[in-house]
Amino acid sequence: MEQRGVAEVETPACCSAAVTDPALASLATLFTGPGAHRGKPLYLHTSPEFAMKRLLAAGSGPIYQICKVFRDGEAGRYHNPEFTLLEWYRPGYDVHRLMDELSALVRCVVAKPLTEHRLSYQALFAKHLGIDPHTATPGALRQCAIERGVASAEALQMADSDSWLDLLLTHCIEPQLGPDMLLVYDYPASQASLAQIKPGKIPLAERFELYLNGVELANGFHELADAGEQRQRFQQDLAKRGRENLPVVPLDERFLAALAAGLPDCSGVALGIDRLLMCIVEADHIDQVLSFPIDRA
User: Fold this and answer.
1) Dihedral sign, Cα of residue 101, residue 80, residue 214, residue 207
2) Residue 191 counted as domain residue
3) How many domains does the chain have?
4) Is 258 contained in some domain?
5) Strand, coil or helix: what is 129?
6) Which CATH number characterizes residue 109's domain?
7) Structural domain of residue 44, as residue ranges?
8) Predicted confidence (pLDDT) per residue in 220-250, tens digit
9) How far apart are CA 103 and CA 113, in angstroms?
């Protein structure tokens, strides 16, 4: 990063607002010091994204950070509730240029020959399952899961396509990816998260993910800079949280104000350091690359 002119920054781990994504759960604490004698709720960040974008809006230029992040309810072969993330942002980059840089970094760190492939999300599903993820109905995706032998697929009650696509991706596609490096791009617009949406006959999210040894290591976006659109997505998240009886968390108004003030056109990516270490040392479980996993913390 230093060689490429990307400055290191540090942002707070405790934030007054939390991520709204229904798929993520924040760990919370209570500050009871001066000015908050009744207690002020704080949330351990699931990513430094919002704070880093506030720095970008303030004119920081290209920046990166390596930090601990926290996600409740996540523990298993590839998950620990506390893990290490490398996140960086590149003003003026599109997702393909950032994919180039991510690929170069991984090759440098892994230090062994890697075969690289790049596929659109649509091409990935067509190659491995013979379906079009942008047009397949939930019923067709359910049938695909049943035919592929996904356990309990017949009994699952999921009305939206994205839930079925995620299930097919994790249970049917990822186990087939092998040892190569794979970059997947052009996700469904419904999975945009904080990415811009590319208009077209089928709108697509300008988002990508990196896989190595069949393990998802990184998630990147051409960052959404429209404060109104971002607020609308946050509100949709909160509505979904309400329907699913999940905690309704406060919006990050400082982040939204930074977007309204002006975020430079940029792309950003978050890379899981622990999972990358797993690939390098050929570990079978994330606990093997952690000094103190959650059961020994």
Assistant:
1) negative
2) no
3) 1
4) yes
5) helix
6) 3.30.930.10
7) 7-115+226-296
8) 999 999 999 999 999 999 999 999 999 999 9
9) 12
Q: Would the pTM count as exceeding 0.85?
A: yes
Rounded distance, CA 46 to CA 37, Å? 26
Per the document, the length of the chain is 297
Give 130-164 as a DSSP string. Answer: S--TTT--HHHHHHHHHHTT-TTTTT----SHHHH
Pairing of strands 63-70, 7-8: parallel
Residue in 62, 56, 52, 87 with CA at minimum distance from that of residue 6: 62
Report pLDDT for 243: 93
| Helix (H/G/I), strand (E/B), else coil: 50 | helix
Residues of the chain with pLDDT under 50: none
Q: Are 121 and 184 in contact (CB under 8 A)?
A: yes
Q: Is 141 exposed, middle or buried (0-12, 13-18, 19+ CB in 10 A)?
A: buried
> Tens digits of per-residue pLDDT, 103-126?
999 999 998 899 999 999 999 999
- What one-letter code names the amino acid at 46? T
What amino acid occupies position 122?
Answer: Q
* Calpha distance 279→262 (Å, rounded): 38
pLDDT at 152: 87
Alpha helices in the chain (DSSP H): 49-57, 95-110, 121-129, 138-147, 161-168, 227-243, 253-262, 273-281
Structure confidence at residue 37 (pLDDT): 84
Tokens of 71: 């996600």
Token pair recorded at residue 251 = 């919006």
Let me know if residue 211 belongs to a domain.
no
Alpha carbons 191 and 133: distance in angstroms, whole number: 12
Report CA torsion sign: 53, 54, 59, 61: negative
Which amino acid, 150? V
Residue 108, pLDDT score: 94
Structural domain contains residue 208? no
